[in-house]
Amino acid sequence: MYRRYLLKRSLLPKRSVQGTTTPFFLASNQFSSAKHSPTPSFSTLQDEIDEANDRYFGELRIEKVPFGYGLVASRDFRKGDKVMTSKAIEERPRDSHTIQTSDNTHVLIDLPSRFVNHACDPNLGVRDNDFQAYDFYALNDIHQGEDLSFDYESTEYEIEGFEKCLCGKERCRKKLGGFKKHGDIVKKLYGQHLAKYLNTHQ
Ligand SMILES: [Zn+2]
C-alpha cells in the first residue's frame, strides 16, 4: 500500500507537500520535466526564496518538503486576515508554474505565493489585486505552524491531468478539472474568494 502511494507520489509535481498536489504542473502535462528556476531578477532560486522569507519574516515561511516547497504560517492568523500578496512577474502561456487571471491570461507570480500548494479544503482564499495577481486571505483561523493552501479550482478554469488529488481532506474532490468542472461547488465554497474572471462563467 505504502509502496503504491510512493509510486503515485513520484509522478506528482515538485511542489507537492504532505499529500497535496498542484495542478500547475499537471495542467501543462509536464509531469516530470517541471523544475523550479529563479525568476529573472534572481540568480538562484535560493536567493529568491531567501528574499521572500525575509520579506515575510514572522508571517510565513517557504519550507522545503520531500516533494518540493510549501508555505507554513509563522504566526496565528484570524479568519479574514490578508496573509500574503502576489504580483505577476510575467505573462506566459499556461505552464507548470503559472496561475490563471483571465480567460486568456496565465501569469508567473512571485514568491512566496508561487509555492502555495493546493487543497480541496484550504485555509486561504484568493481575491484579485492591483498587481495582476491575487491576494490570499485566511478563510478560517490559522495557527502557527499550519501548512498554507488554496484551492486551484478557484483560479484555474481548466485543469488537465489532475487525476488523483492527495490533499487528504474529507471533502477532497479527487479528480480535479478546474472551474469548468467544479464551478458550482467552488462558487458555493468560496463566494468572493474566487478569481474575478470566473464570475462570468456559469
Ligand atoms: Zn483534494
Automatic annotation (TrEMBL):
Q: By its UniProt entry, which InterPro entries does this protein fall under?
A: Flavunoidine_N-MTase, Post-SET_dom, SET_dom, SET_dom_sf
The record's section on SUPFAM superfamilies has: SET domain
Q: Name one GO biological process term.
A: methylation
Q: Name one GO molecular function term.
A: methyltransferase activity
Q: Which Gene3D superfamilies match?
A: SET domain (2.170.270.10)
Keywords annotated in UniProt: Methyltransferase, S-adenosyl-L-methionine, Transferase
Q: From the Swiss-Prot or TrEMBL record, give the protein name.
A: SET domain-containing protein
| Domain (SET): residue spans on this chain | 40-153
Name residues in a coiled coil. none
In this chain the Post-SET domain maps to 161-177
Question: Looking at the keywords, is Chloroplast present?
Answer: no
A Pfam family hit: SET
Top-rank taxon: Eukaryota
